[in-house]
Amino acid sequence: MIKNYENLKGLIWYNGKFVKAKSAKLHVLSHGLHFASVTFEGIRIYNKKAFKLKEHINRLFDSSSMLQIKIPYSKKKIINACKKVIDSQKLIEGYLRPVVWRGGQSMAPGISNAKINVAVAGWKWPIYYSNSAKEKGIKLTISKWRRPPAICAPVKSKCSGLYMICTLAKHDAEKKNFNDALMQDLEGNICETTSSNIFFIKNNSIETPKADCFLNGITRNEVIKLCKMNNISIKEKKISLKNLKNYNSCFITGTAAEITPVNRINNLKFNTKDLILKKIIYKFNKLIKN
Length: 290
Ligand code: PMP
Fold this sequence. Notes:
7 helices
């Protein structure tokens, strides 16, 4: 378990070159640091291979373009950098973190001449939810923080600025002894947790919130595809917090969480042994082993 990522060993790909992780620094006067002009990805490595690498790098470019950031490297170059990081860090089960940020050409919001920096770091996979948490299911609480609507922020971008409320929500949840927090939109519809998407099951059919103001996860899309391929009814719709009691089962999806059952949301209990849920976990585990 890494206690301080600033002590990471090995090499980081930094603006086109490999540098020692210890010297992969940014200046204190970087626009990214002050104004959150940062986008990033989180990619899981299974058996030396990055899962859905192309999809993640496409999203990195999309997230950046939503922040008017033009990445000065081709997608192919970044994909190759990711592969080289896997090799140089000797990662078998691991994690990749590509990150893009604006440099220090201005210390005000407007920065038309920004230098765009790109780095890719990688490390051994640290367990996010233990096997026993995955077996028993996790506990979610409802956050007081709401996802901003699409007219207030680039909600589909995986950009650092939007994670401010995720950190606050996660800290509040952990203080109350929950694993994570579930955020709603301004109208009281369920959105996502602080680092995963959410699905509900009732009477053998699955429903998931429409990704209109939160991250449309790559794992979420894989699960939707798996449902379609296996004739499991799947609907994307607005799901009001008030209607949660109508569902029997619930699970979250994400690069870190993979597919993790939820055993309760506040005091509302869910069945973590649902057969459809087990089937999806089984199919997903097969997919990541390919
Ligand atoms: N929502 C948020 C806020 C996240 O950080 C993540 C993790 N990237 C997800 C959803 C799930 O996305 P993915 O399946 O692409 O990891």
